[in-house]
């Protein structure tokens, strides 16, 4: 074990989010705090959330950019769990209303979201999509309790993976005869992120491990290796397609895609 024990650190992180209080990242206080320690804290927080009546509904990924792995000494992406009170489905018309008053320094990320119809342990893009029930365009809202947004992968995992909320747009069912077309489309589609109707960022499916489907497959392999494999029914969000953008109350954010048949998704922050 590291000098920072999991129960104490879980309490500190939960308290920091609850009271909008910034703390120093664990790795800045204890150089021995590693990914294994981060996952112990994440597991402790998950246990507490479940004990409080909140079910886990899926997972989000972090560091889905392979170019960063060598610098950060990673050999795969990282992940954290999402919960029944943090995942929201957008209405067919109009934006989701989401309060940000309890968040510390929130940002928004457009992402591709999958729901699994079968367990997934890895494979290629086609194998990953064969396990998918539906996909959707979504927004992950991330929030950081670490000062100046300074953290390492182990810190990220320990702090809920920075997960504050997930807004899921209208899902599109995935049928087996569509899989070859999706394998081709998912690396190349483009996304545009708008704030109050004005474009602020652009991205592409290739920004997450060359394809959201490949990112899903990588997560399947990583979770299986860690002894917590992806299960049928899990909702998975696969990493930001653009740079994360800071948000504030009163703003309306919309994401739209080209090259992939998915409806827009919008969220209004109050």
Question: What are its keywords?
Answer:
8 helices; nine-stranded mixed sheet; 27% helix; single chain; alpha+beta; 270 residues
Brief summary of the model shown:
The chain is an alpha+beta fold and 270 residues long.
Question: Please, could you describe this protein's structure?
Answer:
The protein is an alpha+beta fold and 270 residues long. The chain has one domain (6-269): Fumarylacetoacetase-like, C-terminal domain (Fumarylacetoacetate hydrolase, domain 2). It is 27% helix and 29% strand. It contains 8 helices and 14 strands. It has helices at 6-18, 26-29, 35-51, 69-72, 125-130, 153-158, 179-188, 212-225, and strands at residues 56-62, 78-83, 87-89, 96-98, 107-116, 132-142, 163-168, 172-173, 190-195, 198-204, 235-237, 245-246, 252-258, 265-269. The strands form 2 sheets. Strands 1, 2, 3, 5, 6, 7, 8, 11 and 12 form a 9-stranded mixed sheet that branches. It is globular. The model has no long low-confidence stretch (mean pLDDT 96).
Number of strands: 14
Proportion in helices: 25-40%
**CATH class wording:** Alpha Beta
The count of domains is 1
Average pLDDT reading: 96
Which topology does CATH recognise? Fumarylacetoacetate hydrolase, domain 2
At the fourth level of CATH, the homologous superfamily is Fumarylacetoacetase-like, C-terminal domain
Helix/strand order, N-terminal first: HHHEHEEEEHEHEEHEEHEEEE
Backbone structural class: alpha+beta
User: How far is it from the N-terminal to the C-terminal residue, by CA?
Assistant: 42 Å
Taking Cα atoms only, what radius of gyration do you get, to the nearest Å?
Answer: 18 Å
Residue ranges: pLDDT <50 for 5 or more in a row?
none
CATH architecture descriptor = Alpha-Beta Complex
Task: Count the DSSP helices.
Answer: 8
**Major beta sheet summary:** 9 strands, mixed
Shape: globular
Percent of sequence in beta strands: 25-35%
